[in-house]
Amino acid sequence: MTNQTSSQKTTNSINVARMYYYQNMTTDAIAKEMKVSRSTISRMLTYAREEGLVNIQIVDPRDIPSQLEAAILDVFELKGVHVVPVPEVVGEAEWLERVAQYTANYLNTIFESNMVLGIAWGTTMTAVSRHLLRKTTHNSQVVQLNGAGNTQSMGIDYASQIIMRFSENYRARAHLFPVPTFFDFPETKSALWREASIQRILDLQSRTDLLLYSIGAVNAGIPSHVYSGGYLAETNYKELEKYKIAGDIATVFFKEDGSFDNIPLNRRASGPSLQLFREKYGVCVVSGLAKVRGLNAALRGKLMSELIIDEPTARALVENYL
What we know:
- It is a single chain.
- The chain is 46% helix and 12% strand.
- The protein has 322 residues and is α/β, with parallel strands linked by helices.
- The protein folds into 2 domains: 45 residues, Arc Repressor Mutant, subunit A (Orthogonal Bundle), CATH 1.10.10; 258 residues, Rossmann fold (3-Layer(aba) Sandwich), CATH 3.40.50.
- The strands form 2 sheets. The protein has a 7-stranded parallel sheet with strand order 1-9-8-5-2-3-4, sandwiched between helices.
- Strand 8, helix 13 and strand 9 form a beta-alpha-beta unit.
- Helix 4 crosses helix 14.
- The protein is globular and about 75 Å long.
- The protein starts with 5 loop residues before the first helix and ends with a helix.
C-alpha cells in the first residue's frame, strides 16, 4: 500500500473506517484481514478523520453547551449558536484559543468559491487567522472592513497581516483598506470617501456574502486591539462613557440597546455602518467575560446571524442578561 494513489488511499481508508466503526473490529483484526501492520491501520484511521471521511459526534445528555445554545436561541433570532466547551479554570487566553480553533474549522464549511468575505481586524481575528485550515477556493475575495492607521503607529501592517492570512489560506484575492481607523474630522472622511479607489473598497464591502468579526470591549481581560493600540484619545473615552457605549463592531460603536445612530465618534470611524451587519450574513466570534455586556447589546440590536462563543462567556450571558 506504500505506492497507492490518492483515490486508492481514500477508498482503503473508508473501508478501514467502516470495519473499525461499523463492525467494531479491532485494529489488530483489521490489520490481519488486510495483511498490513497495525500502525498502517492506525494511520489510515487518522487519515480518514483528517480528510473529513469520518465524522465523530459525541452525544451527552448532560451537554451544558447545548443547553446554553438553546437558551440563547430561545431569546434571540439567530441562525445558529455554537458554544465551544472549555473549562473555566484554564483562563481566558485558552478560551480564546479554543474558540479561534473552532471558528477556523467552521469557516471552512461556510466559505466557498465565488464568495466575498469581510473581515473586521482585531485580537480575536488574529487568533482565528493562526488556526486557519488550508482550503482552495476560486474567484473568492477577502476585504478589510475598517481602517487601521492611528496617530501613534501605523497599525496597517497589523491589519493587513490578518487579511493576508485569510486570503492566502483560501487562495482568495485580498483587498486592504489603508485608511485611518478614526479620522480627525468627519469632513476629511467624507472627502476621502468620494475617491474612486476608496469607493471600490466600499462597494466591495456592500457586496460581501459573509462577515466575520468580534465585539470590541474597553476592559476586556484580553484587550480589544482598538482599545490597547493607541487608537483612542482620552476625550474619546469620555465620549464613550457619555453615550453609554456598550461595545463596537469594526470600530463602529453601539449603545446598550444595539442602536448606533447619533454617536459623534461614528461619524469619524472608518468602519461600515452597522446596518451592514443587520443585512448581511454575519458570524460574530466572542470570547471573554468583559465582552458579555457588548454582546448582549449587539444581540438586541440584531447585529449578527450566528454566534460562536466559549462556554464560560455563554454562561455569563445567560445568567446575567437572559
